[in-house]
Design brief:
Jelly Rolls; binds 2-oxoglutaric acid; alpha+beta; globular; about 240 residues; six-stranded antiparallel beta sheet; binds fe (ii) ion; 5 helices
Length: about 240
């Protein structure tokens, strides 16, 4: 068993943690097969053209547990993952959903963003990201960039605010890696150069956090509401 207390401390310091070889190759190979089976290689985009253009986000979501694809329960039920989540959040938390995010070759990834408004430090989501393939500069692109400590810094800088990207960390998760990422922490996904890129997100939140906390995403140039497909605020 990993040292969950040490990882929890690191999570609260940095706003994220990356643990390699967390899941077995057998499990993530199975997930990757199911994912490819579902998407094929040229799935249509689920988001509106306006959102894709303005936000520079090109990912297609899939919610396998909602469709009863049973094998995706294994990660939810993983004892070590639960213990780690518990160590980070204390005992009051709940699982939101699992969402596979697929990106085609040649797409832009995701621009810098926060998953939800950082107005209340007690209200946030945590991304528990499972990687079912190696993600690296040479073969796939699509690395995840994160800004250490930014979960304590309020709103992500607007396009005209100073934003020192030299302090960002580039994560190149491997098949079987787990990344835990605080929803207020600034993060982005680099352009996808390989055939495709997938990550699977088992989102959780402290108990009492609204289920739809991630309905409003914060980008440098706008605040966007997914359910109404509308720009709530232009930022400049
Ligand atoms: O796929 C990733 O590595 C990160 C995706 C992301 O932005 C998120 O999970 O909120
Ligand atoms: Fe995100």
């Amino acid at each position: 068993m990993i040292n969950v207390q040490a990882y929890a401390k690191q999570f609260w310091q940095e706003g994220f943690i990356h643990i390699e070889n967390f899941f077995s190759a057998e499990l993530v190979d199975l997930y990757n097969e199911k994912i490819i089976e579902h998407f094929g290689m040229t799935p249509d985009f689920a988001h509106t053209d306006e959102f894709i253009k303005k936000s520079a986000v090109e990912v297609i979501p899939w919610f396998p547990q909602r469709e009863g694809v049973k094998c995706f329960d294994t990660v939810s039920e993983d004892k070590t993952l639960r213990a780690l989540t518990q160590a980070i959040l204390g005992h009051d938390w709940y699982e939101q959903y699992s969402m596979v995010m697929f990106s085609k070759q040649g797409t832009v990834g995701q621009a810098w963003h926060q998953d939800c408004l950082p107005t209340d430090p007690k209200q946030f989501n945590i991304n528990r990201l499972v990687y079912t393939m190696d993600i690296d500069q040479a073969y796939t692109g699509g690395q995840t960039m994160v800004m250490p400590g930014s979960h304590r810094q309020g709103l992500i800088p607007s396009p005209t605010d100073a934003f020192d990207q030299s302090k960002a960390e580039i994560l190149s998760p491997k098949k079987g890696s787990l990344v835990l990422l605080h929803g207020h922490c600034f993060h982005m996904v680099k352009p996808v150069t390989g055939k495709y890129r997938v990550s699977t997100n088992y989102r959780v939140a402290p108990k009492g956090t609204p289920e739809n906390i991630t309905d409003i995403g914060i980008y440098r140039n706008m605040i966007y509401q997914f359910s109404t497909q509308s720009v709530l605020e232009e930022r400049n």
